[in-house]
Design brief:
CATH architecture of the largest domain: Up-down Bundle
Shape: elongated
Structural class: alpha+beta
Radius of gyration: 32 Å
Strand content: 5-15%
Number of helices: 25
């Protein structure tokens, strides 16, 4: 290590300029990164739900909807209907809109002089109370409208734009907002649907990145100054953090990736983690740079590197390894985040070990922070706290172990109450427009999620049509299915127009193919066959049932899709089952499986690294104990506080293991040094806590403060992630400073004992 230290001092200028140039080059790539808020793209292209949904879009055109929700006391009021009419007519002319569904565009199939008559659901605006009530009764009997684009209490109606597959969210949302400004009214209007959710998510990502990054950097500057009270103690770790962020964020566009929801975590993660190594180096520098020391600035730089290079390298490798274990996730953004975070951490590790000593060797010796014999009250208080901690640990080690294990058992009960949630509308507080519109659709218009079942064959065959009708009726009877649509339902409505209620053909599927074909022929005389394009293709070879769901609960989605799978099992007429509800479920399953796999990988990898460092299997086992307790506390609190396992909180375990084990490594390394210097176990514990313990606390607090910034995020999952990571890191800190010393005293592991003469 001394040769490397000499090389750092000798080549300090190339090292300094090399790191700065690298940060500038990668930083220039950051503005080129694009934002992607599409939930479907988070799944691998080959996953069943995504493949099926893409195939459905290919057959029936775009199935995504942007909804304009108009809320008033009575949506059949003349002024409200005028506004809805103008919006629906103008929305049809917006580029990228394939079809519009509204009271004025959807049809009413009824009988007129013994024939089928097809008219708009609202053919003329009622002007008198009697006309309004007559229209209300007509709508109640219209399966294509009632409960679908108008609520059963007539307080909410929707103008739905079915979009083409190539339209951008930014464009369509801005165009619809322009139409709303051009058509003002007293009604409460809100937007809904997946394109609007993605638009808001994209906007929130930009707001979070522009707010969290400077806020996190500012807080970190203040924290570093409070810890070290020296300019170099603030500036050098800060520069390393900024360079690491520029490096990792610049990698996004270079790798051809995009910024997604959980990418918001990346710069804040690096603010919290990337300065850890610099903090230990500066703390060691201040430990050596006491009042009256004989060392030169170059000597101090070399000593800092030589004494900390091994434990700092290992802590950096464990943190990077913990991040890379997220590669076990099926969720694509989690994989990408793992690579970006690991690269940023390795850059920070390298910069801390090379760049910081190189700069320290150039700077004149700093004035000692605390002069001998003249310690400040803050210093005395800090040492007293660590000294008190050392006394308690050495006095009651077995009690500490018992209390820790009891706490783990009690809190782990909450694990059984952890729920999974991947619904993007739950990214926000309940009063946010995205959440509010989803609630309105769930309550009044059948549901914000959907599952689609596609039949293939001769759709005009009564056997197939009756099978479609039977499945739709079954789905309508399920409590979490709010509404359905299918071509079979339209055919039954046609039959009600052609037959009286006391005739055999009323409200049923015809018995012959010719009769079914005749229904469609009669419809085409006064209606447009394009009205059915989202239910059946024009060769009449594919038909789709769309079930609108009033829930996004993973448990309920799993139950619904499970029952549908049983219904269609071995059915040769069913080709596909897809829709966004199916995507959400598969995303939730991926979150759970990824959490389990990444957790196992992180424990194995970190344990193996510790075994290699200390050359003892016991090292990995001892380090795993506080991590396991922290894990139990983490997931137990999630269950007790009702915090969902989602795409953000699913990253917790790997990050906690990779970062939290650092404190244990630094403690064990210094404790072993003190034991090999001949110190008794009790004395070694006290010395380690009052020396290395200072750097460990600074390290942990920097992570806590850094991740604490996430609690001001616009995304609820990110807020919860920030809260939980703070809790878990504090738990790891307590484990390293209390439980690990107690274990060392009770177990007396051989790898920490002095070597035999």
């Amino acid at each position: 290590m001394s040769k490397i230290a000499d090389g750092i001092v000798r080549f300090r200028w190339p090292i300094i300029f090399g790191f700065l140039a690298l940060a500038v080059v990668f930083g220039l790539q950051v503005p080129k990164a694009e934002i992607n808020s599409d939930m479907k793209s988070q799944l691998p292209p080959g996953m069943e739900s995504r493949v099926n949904t893409d195939a459905i879009d290919e057959i029936f055109g775009g199935t995504e909807m942007l909804m304009v929700l108009v809320h008033s006391d009575d949506v059949l009021a003349p002024e409200t209907l005028e506004r809805v009419k103008n919006l629906s007519r103008q929305m049809k002319r917006v580029k990228g809109v394939d079809k519009v569904l509204s009271l004025f565009e959807l049809k009413n199939i009824k009988s007129g002089e013994g024939a089928m008559v097809v008219e708009p659901a609202v053919s003329r605006i009622p002007r008198t109370p009697g006309e309004r009530e007559e229209l209300r009764q007509e709508i109640r009997g219209n399966d294509m409208v009632f409960g679908s684009v108008v609520s059963e209490d007539f307080t909410l109606t929707a103008v739905i734009a079915l979009l083409k597959t190539d339209v951008s969210d930014d464009f369509i949302v801005s165009e619809v907002r322009r139409l709303l400004e051009e058509n003002p009214g007293p009604e409460e209007v809100s937007l809904g649907g997946l394109p609007y959710t993605r638009f808001e998510v994209s906007e929130s990502i930009q707001r979070d990145l522009s707010r969290l990054l400077p806020l996190g950097l500012l807080i970190m500057l203040i924290f570093l100054f409070v810890c070290f009270r020296q300019v170099r103690g603030v500036v050098l770790p800060f520069i390393v953090v900024v360079m690491s962020i520029a490096f990792s964020m610049g990698m996004i566009s270079l790798l051809g990736w995009k910024i997604q929801v959980i990418t918001v975590l990346l710069p804040v993660m690096l603010i919290a983690i990337a300065n850890d190594y610099g903090i230990h180096l500066i703390a060691k520098y201040q430990e050596y740079n006491t009042d009256g020391n004989p060392y030169s600035n170059k000597d101090l730089a070399k000593y800092v590197f030589s004494s900390l290079s091994r434990p700092v390298v290992l802590t950096g490798l464990t943190s990077a390894a913990g991040m890379l274990c997220l590669l076990g996730h099926i969720i694509i953004p989690a994989r990408e985040l793992s690579v970006l975070a690991a690269l940023g951490i390795l850059f920070a590790l390298t910069a801390s070990l090379l760049f910081i000593p190189a700069v320290l060797s150039l700077l004149p010796k700093a004035r000692p922070v605390v002069k001998a014999g003249d310690a400040s009250r803050r210093k005395r208080t800090f040492e007293r706290l660590l000294g008190f901690l050392g006394f308690q640990v050495t006095a009651f080690p077995k009690a500490i172990i018992f209390v820790s294990l009891t706490l783990a058992v009690v809190t782990s009960v909450g694990i059984f109450f952890v729920v999974i949630d991947t619904d993007p509308s739950n990214y926000y507080m309940p009063d946010h427009p995205v959440a509010r519109s989803a609630d309105l659709v769930n309550e009044y218009l059948g549901g914000a999620q959907n599952i689609s079942v596609v039949f293939e064959g001769d759709i005009k065959d009564p056997r197939v049509m009756q099978k479609i009708d039977a499945m739709e009726q079954e789905l309508l009877g399920w409590p979490d299915v709010g509404n359905t649509s299918s071509i079979a339902r339209v055919v039954r409505q046609m039959s009600r127009a052609l037959y009286d209620s006391d005739e055999d053909g009323y409200d049923r599927i015809p018995d012959t193919r010719n009769a079914v074909a005749q229904y469609f022929e009669l419809y085409s005389m006064s209606g447009d066959p394009d009205d059915f394009e989202k239910m059946v293709d024009f060769p009449y070879e594919h038909a789709m049932i769309t079930a609108r769901l009033k829930t996004s609960s993973t448990k309920k989605l799993d139950a619904i899709l499970g029952k549908i799978d049983k219904m269609v099992m071995d059915d040769p007429d069913v080709k596909l089952v897809g829709g966004f509800g199916a995507i959400l479920l598969e995303l939730a399953i991926g979150v759970v499986n990824g959490q389990i796999l990444s957790l196992i990988l992180a424990i194995l990898v970190v344990g193996a690294l510790l075994m290699l460092l200390f050359r003892s299997p016991a090292a990995g086992a001892i380090a795993a104990i506080p991590l396991a307790i922290s894990m139990a506390v983490l997931f137990g609190l999630m269950g007790f506080f009702g915090i969902e396992l989602n795409i953000a909180t699913a990253l917790l375990s790997s990050i906690m293991i990779g970062v939290g084990v650092d404190y244990t490594i630094h403690y064990l390394w210094r404790y072993r040094e003190e034991r090999r210097r001949g110190k008794e176990p009790d004395d070694a514990v006290k010395i380690t806590l009052t020396t290395t313990g200072r750097g460990i606390i600074f390290n942990a607090l920097s992570v806590v403060i850094g991740f604490g910034v996430l609690m001001s995020s616009g995304f609820m999952p990110v807020r919860f992630f920030g809260f939980l990571i703070v809790v878990s890191i504090l738990s790891c800190l307590i484990g390293a400073l209390v439980l690990i010393p107690a274990l060392c005293l009770v177990l007396r592991p051989r790898f920490l004992e002095p070597k035999a003469p």
